[in-house]
Specification:
This protein is α/β, with parallel strands linked by helices and about 280 residues long. Helix 7 crosses helix 10 and helix 9 packs antiparallel against helix 10. It is globular and about 55 Å long.
């Protein structure tokens, strides 16, 4: 489920083409590898699930676990939806601006809502999105929010002789160009507090680190994201060669072991039975 207000769209330089979609699938499967579940075990254990909302990739996997539930996927654009004919029979994908007014047909419609990796579109204020998600939950429904801790993003090398100079320089350029407002995304590390603030009972709030054994593929996945941002700059014509040269050098640094990592947060909250909207 994604959207972006005007002050955040300037940061969201990621694409929606073939490589971008490939990166999303890789991102999803690597995330699942670390977390080890799609839906938090408490949700599947304690809830009779009939309606779930999320985005396409996650729902296609979930359809195998919940073949009798209706699974609705939403995004602000349909450009990365797979063909409708190839979706599981219980999965439906539609466009939706998740920061706009919630359509009346979706108010209180879902037993479970899953949202993930929307930090770039939420910016420094996730509350409008959070309140809309809660509004879409049935009383007693669950919200599972999986998020990347961009504020904790860092680069490492396996030994002192390995370089990460170009990686560091490229990320500094990305921050200067795409994050002029200086967003810190510090809210990601206190998602549980935000859920409580809106009246939810927190079931889980867990922070996952990226271990050494998957640092290499994780870095390659993030380099794909960087490539989308570099392409954005190339298309504008501004400092294109400088960005491209750094990107090529960063790829070479990663080949020799330099890594980019960020923490992962999973927060799960339950809407009170007494809370209608």
């Amino acid at each position: 489920m994604s959207t972006a207000p005007a002050d955040v769209r300037s940061f969201y330089g990621l694409g929606r083409d073939f490589l971008s979609t490939t990166r999303l699938y890789l991102q999803h499967w690597m995330w699942r590898r670390q977390v080890q579940y799609l839906l938090h075990p408490t949700i599947t254990r304690e809830t009779e699930i009939t309606n779930v909302a999320d985005i396409a990739i996650w729902l296609v996997d979930l359809a195998q676990q919940l073949p009798n539930a209706q699974l609705d996927g939403y995004d602000i654009s349909s450009s990365q939806f797979p063909p409708r004919e190839w979706l599981p029979s219980n999965v439906k994908l539609e466009t939706l601006d998740a920061l706009a007014e919630v359509p009346s047909s979706l108010v209180g419609a879902y037993d479970v809502i899953h949202v993930g990796l929307v930090v770039l579109v939420a910016g420094d204020d996730p509350m409008p999105l959070l309140r809309n998600l809660i509004k879409m939950l049935k009383p007693g429904g669950y919200l599972q929010w999986d998020e990347a801790d961009l504020g904790g993003l860092h680069r490492r090398t396996p030994n002192p002789s390995a370089s990460k100079r170009s990686l560091d320089a490229l990320y500094e350029l990305v921050d200067e160009r795409f994050n002029p407002a200086g967003f810190s995304w510090s809210w990601v590390r206190s998602l549980d507090d935000l859920l409580r603030q809106e009246g939810l009972t927190v079931i889980e709030n867990k922070y996952f680190q990226i271990p050494d054994e998957i640092a290499h593929p994780w870095t390659h996945m993030l380099l794909l994201s960087l490539g989308e941002l570099v392409q954005n700059v190339k298309d504008s014509g501004d400092d294109a060669q400088k960005w491209w040269d750094l990107y090529v050098e960063a790829i070479e640094e990663a080949r020799h072991g330099a890594s980019v990592r960020m923490g992962m947060v999973v927060a799960v909250g339950r809407k009170p039975i007494s809370q209608v909207y």
